Amino acid sequence: MDIIRADHLKKTFGPVTAVNDVNLSVREGEIFGFLGPNGAGKTTTIRLLTGVLTPDFGTVHINGIDIHRHPLDAKMQMGVIPENSTVYGDLSAEQNLQLSGKMYGMPKTLRDKRVDEVLSKMGLSEKKRLPVRTFSKGMKQRASIACAIIHRPKVLFLDEPTSGLDVQSRRLVIETIHEMNEQGSTIFLTTHNIEEANTLCRTVCIINKGMIVAQDSPERLKKMFDTTQSVEVSFDRPVSRDLFAAEGILRAEPCGDKWRLYTDNPDQVLKYLVGRAEREAITITSLTTSGPSLEEAFVRITECA
Amino acid sequence: MMEAPLFLRGILVITGKNMRLYYTKPPVLMFGLLFPLFMFFAFFVGRNLDLETFFPGFLAMMLFFTASSVGPLITPWEKREKTYERLLSYPVTQDSIILGDVVAGAVFGIGISLLVWIASRFFVPVAVTNIGLFILAFILGTLACAALGALLASPASDSPPNVMIFSNLVRFPLIFISGIFVPLEQMQGLGLALAYCSPLTYMVDLFNAAMSGTSVFSPVTDCGVLIVASAGFIVISRVIQKRNMMKGM
Ligand SMILES: Nc1ncnc2c1ncn2[C@@H]1O[C@H](COP(=O)(O)OP(=O)(O)OP(=O)(O)O)[C@@H](O)[C@H]1O
Ligand SMILES: [Mg+2]
Question: Which CATH architecture best describes the domain A224-304?
């Protein structure tokens, strides 16, 4: 059975259609990555899936429970780390966790035990009595995660859990995600870090302009664009984009002092570049080719949609 | 309904959270506690007013201000501090949040007003003639005021100062048209018509009935109006907040 199932979700805000006919199914035990450019509708989708927002149309089932009809039962199954919502700054980390445990109806003894466990796992034991207001961004995010995993949820939703974190905090978050998954939680996360999705997720779903445009394993998504490769080139002086309007070059984009050209046929592009540079008397200062990456697949998918 | 125990637990936990976090917030202390005391001193002390007539009204005013000052603060505060979305993702609904806010306001109102009443017994020779009605006045009155407080939090704002200003704009006129400073019998015309529309009038009247034994309406009418008003405020607040949520967080 699918642990998360969304059918024909639609949500509009005035003239903006944030989510348009989204269908999703996530199998139990998966780490599911939800990618998309800014404003694609990721946060809105998570809000719909977690019952924070009501869709204009469509249904959501969490572990078989209709979230619209039985919001409380459905919410008991999950832990949520919203994108920009925090825990209570006036309460200490420990008090926040206690409150969270109460929200999920955990009995006192279990709660006390889990609060200590989770605090130490998230590296907050030492500062557990200080108000969260005084925490750094990374510590706040760890406190937020701690509150969402205290009851060992069946499904864990994380909206950009690692954005803005330093390397240590980020690793701790990734580690926690892995650990929760090993202990049986299904993970649904959004991220802008494609590399992170590539290494973490079994399935990746890409949303663009409110619509799902691709869903597959990272490897298969990359293979979809197997024929696409990229050529990176730099010259001794600035050139205009017009230079790359040639057969075989699918797309050109500036990358720092270089240009990245996407192509199905690197050989043709290399020959063209060399010939053109000679004719225009410009010098090629560097030239590299590379195979498909998930990032390229992502860009291709979100661009052609 | 399978979810009823979960629903009640949600209200309880939210109430506890509200009590812990919001009772000591400056706007609550200011408008809930200090303000009615100032009003008391400004209007009653040194004026040789007959306390028997006015004390029930003062108690009602105290209850009104305390009970309705917590509700307007909570939701805008949580939206500003960005804790509201997280709260909604717990096993609660907007209904449990509204009711948790109402109960927290009511407990605050009853607690403070009861203290004031007990303290006042040493200074003010006003007896309670009907203890049953007195308890009823306390409970129904505070419920109506706390529900009004929750309703005042409904505008889609994440600015506590704005919501406090708005809620005071509504609350202040109410105390002048509800038979606290001018007994209902002495009102006429528009003033009287307005007084009939204010739920606070019926609360004052119920306190009068319980304490001095004189009232304009029958206690049944008073109780009925307070119950209907409480339910009405909660329902309207629910409708507005649901509509706000449809427009996004
Ligand atoms: N409350 C709201 N009112 C109006 N428009 C909204 C609201 N919330 C989201 N939107 C719009 O819906 C679209 C999707 O927004 P959403 O926040 O879901 O994107 P996102 O994929 O999470 O983006 P990001 O990567 O920047 O977090 C955007 O165009 C946004 O402007
Ligand atoms: Mg987002």
Answer: 2-Layer Sandwich (3.30)
Residues of B in contact with A87 (CB under 8 A): 83, 86
CB contacts of A14 in chain B (<8 Å) are 247
Pocket test residue of A9, A10, A13 for ligand 1, highest count of atoms within 8 A of CB:
A13
- Looking at the DSSP bridge assignments, the partners of residue B221 are none
> What are the domain boundaries of chain A?
2-219, 224-304
What pLDDT score was predicted for residue A225? 63
Q: What is the 3-state secondary structure (H, E, C) of chain A?
A: CEEEEEEEEEEEECCEEEEEEEEEEEECCCEEEEECCCCCCHHHHHHHHCCCCCCCEEEEEECCEECCCCHHHHHHCEEEECCCCCCCCCCEHHHHHHHHHHHCCCCHHHHHHHHHHHHHHCCCHHHCCCEHHHCCHHHHHHHHHHHHHCCCCCEEEEECCCCCCCHHHHHHHHHHHHHHHHCCCEEEEECCCHHHHHHHCCEEEEEECCEEEEEECHHHHHHHCCCCEEEEEEECCCCCHHHHCCCCEEEEEEECCEEEEEECCHHHHHHHHHHHHHHHCCCEEEEEEECCCHHHHHHHHHHHC
Fold of A2-219: Rossmann fold (3.40.50)
The structure's pTM equals 0.85
Q: Are B215 and B53 in contact (CB under 8 A)?
A: no
Protein residue closest via CA to atom 7 of ligand 1: B248
Q: Per-residue pLDDT tens for B72-89?
A: 899 999 999 999 999 999
Question: What distance in Å separates the CA atoms of residue A105 and residue A273, rounded to the nearest whole number?
Answer: 66
Q: Where are the domains positioned within chain B?
A: 4-246
Distance of CA A181 from the midpoint of ligand 2 (Å): 23
Q: How far is the CA of A47 from the centre of ligand 2 (A)?
A: 10
Which pair of structure tokens corresponds to residue A129?
């009595």
Give the closest-approach CA distance of A223 to chain B in angstroms: 37
Protein residues with C-beta less than 5 angstroms from the ion ligand 2 = A 42-43, 83
The predicted-structure confidence for A202-253, as pLDDT tens digits, reads as follows: 999 999 999 998 888 888 877 766 667 788 899 998 888 888 888 888 888 8
If you take atom 14 of ligand 1, which residue's CA is the nearest one? A41
For residue A75, report the distance from its CA to the centre of ligand 1, in Å: 23
Instruction: Tell me what ipTM this predicted complex has.
Output: 0.88
Ligand 1 site: residues with CB under 6 angstroms? A 13, 16, 18, 36, 38-44, 83; B 248-249
Task: Measure in Å the smallest separation between the Cα of A237 and chain B Cα atoms.
Answer: 48
Q: Which of A11, A43, A189 to mutate to test the pocket of ligand 1 (most atoms within 8 A of CB)?
A: A43
Q: How confident is the model at residue A79 (pLDDT cuts 50, 70, 90)?
A: very high
Residue B90 to residue A75, Cβ atoms within 8 A: yes
Contacts of A72 in chain B (CB under 8 A): 3, 6-7, 10, 91-93
